[in-house]
Amino acid sequence: MAKKKKPDLDKLRSQLEHELIRERRAAVEQLAGLLTDEQLRIAAFKLLEETAATNFYGIIQKAAREAMDAEQRKSMPAVAPAETMFYIGVTCSNYHTTYFDRRALCRDKTLYRRNAQVVDGRTLEEFEVVCEVCKEKMKTPPIECPEETR
Ligand SMILES: [Zn+2]
User: Fold this and answer.
1) Do residues 62 and 81 touch, judged by C-beta distance below 8 A?
2) 0.90 exceeded by pTM
C-alpha cells in the first residue's frame, strides 16, 4: 500500500522565493494547511514565521502572519465578542497557543508567579503560565493590572 506523500518543505521553501507572487502565495496557503498536521506543524510554523519576518514582499509577509494568527485563534475560548479584548494568547516553543483571561490573571494571588516592573510610572506584571497542551512554562507579555489586584 502506497503511503500518502508528504508535502516537501524544501520545495515550499524555494517556492516562497518564486519570482511570481501568486506562486509564493500558493506556498503560504499550503503551509497554512500543514499547521494542523501533527508531524509537520512545527516546521510549517517556523517557515511561516521566517516568511513573515523576511520575505521580500510585504503582502507575502502579511499572508504568512495571517495564516499563523488564524491557526492560533482556533484555541481562543468561545466568549462574547466584547470579552475577547480581555484575552491574551501566549505561544510556547512548540507553537501551541493558550489564551488567558487577563482579569483572572490579575486577580489570582496563588496560581501564577508574577513579576512586577515599573516602566515610566506604570506597574507592569509578567505572569508565569503553563501551555495547555504540552505544559511548558512560559511568560505572558507585561500586563497592567488594576491597582486593587496587585
Ligand atoms: Zn505547548
Assistant:
1) no
2) no
